[in-house]
Structure formats: C-alpha cells, structure tokens
Amino acid sequence: MRIATWNVNSIKQRVGHLVAFLDEAKPDVVCLQELKCQDDGFPRAEIEAAGYAGETLGQKAYNGVALLVRAPLTLGEVRRGLPGDENDEQARYIEGLVTGEGTAPVRVASIYLPNGNPVDSPKYPYKLAFMERLRRHARDLMMHEEAIVLAGDYNVIPEADDASDPDAWRDDALFLPRTRTAFRALLAEGFTEALRACDPKPGLYTFWDYQAGAWNRNAGIRIDHLLLSPQAADRLVSASVQKRLRGLEKPSDHVPVTVELT
DNA sequence: ATGACCTAACTTTTAGGA
Q1: Which domains does chain A have, with CATH numbers?
Q2: Of A32, A58, A149, A159, which residue has the fewest beta carbons closer than 10 angstroms?
Q3: pLDDT tens digit string along A159-185?
Q4: A254: nt with nearest C1' to CA
C-alpha cells in the first residue's frame, strides 16, 4: 500500500498537478493539507474521475485537510478534528480507516499542524497545545495495536540536518527547542518517522519558500512527515520525496512525501 | 550585495503562510 502526504497550498490552484500526480504515482491513499476552501468548493468531480474517493474537512480561505483513497479501497470511521478542544474552529485534522479486499487495514490521519509564528503571539501556544492534543490522541490510538500512519505538514524541522541553513531558523516556531521537544514526545509514544528511517542522510527537503529564490538555491526544509505505529513500521518498504513537482509551473511550495507499506 | 512570493477575500490592501 502506497500512502502520500501533500500540502497543496490551495486545492483549486493545484487540482491539475494533483490529478497528474495521482495518474503517475498511483498512491492508494493521499493526505492533503491547506485546501483553502470549504467542503462544497472541493474539486470532487476531477478527483473522482481520476479514480479516487475523498473525505474533507474544509473551511473558508484557510487550512483544510482531506483524505483520498483509490478505488476499490474504502474509507470508514472518519473523524474530523482532534479531541481536546471543542472550541477549535481550525480545519487541521481528519482521520479514517482504509480497508479493502485482500488489503491489511491502515488507520490514516491527514494533519496540518499550526505554523506558530510569530512566537510571541497566541499562535505559538496554540501550536504547542495542538501538538499536545495530537500526542494524547496518538497515545489513545496506540492502544488498539493497529497499523497507523499520521501524515501531514507538521511545521516542525526535527533536526539541524533538515534545513539548508539551520541558523536562519534558530528563533522560528518551526525549529525552537520547545517545538522539537514536543515532536520528540509524539515520536516517543512509539512512532517511527518513515523518511528518516529509510533515508537518514541530511539535505532531504519537502518545502522551499516561494521567496528569495529558495528553490533555485535549494534553500529547503523538511517539515512534512509520516509517522508510523509499530504495526505500520513492520510493513515499511520505502519512503521518498517527489522533489520534481516543485519544479513545475505554478507549484505548491511543498512536495509530496510517499511511503510504501507491504 | 540586495532583494526576490503566493493565495484568498465583502479585493486595489491585508492577513497568513513558513
């Protein structure tokens, strides 16, 4: 089973690239982030024509996440939003159970973790609180001893090797010690970070800013991750970054990351 | 050396991103 995560930075702007990616890579499951539209604006017809069914959690203008599954796989037990804050209006979490004839089930989440900048604003405590809610929910999921993949844009640079210029990120919400500690606390619930496990070399990036010629200078960071429960990690075959998509016309600033499970 | 972008929205400027 092939599972991909991609922050598309507006699904309406990126549906052409998405359908091309679906046709070429044929992922079984796709986790999307930053839809930037409401559920009724999601380009369902084009995606269904490509052979995929989807569940979305959208909101106006900002955020928004989705799960796509390739027929004949099906998506059940869909959860929208993380437990722990009934007042949270931001569309940043959707989860479901992917099943199919002759396929071992996998529980998959699409996560758009808050950016958290500026650090001296309420946005940073919101980020840390979201990470703690995610950790607690992940701990609850672990009790079921299932194959779980928590995938998405974590807005966390885990290590200095995951940035071309780590000093530039020293005081940023994506790289502050508290942020990285919270990410390690999530991993410590028993998750394996798939790309790191498969390809531990430095300089593997998933995001290049639109500004300052970041792509041409390869001034990237690695912030999109797939976290595997032990039952999923046992099935891990490979992980890869679809770097080529950053070089297309009108690209997202993120590229897809894909894992292959048996 | 410096500056350099993109998206959505009650749009001609702002908020948000990272």
Answers
A1: 2-261 (3.60.10.10)
A2: A159
A3: 999 999 999 999 999 999 999 999 999
A4: B18
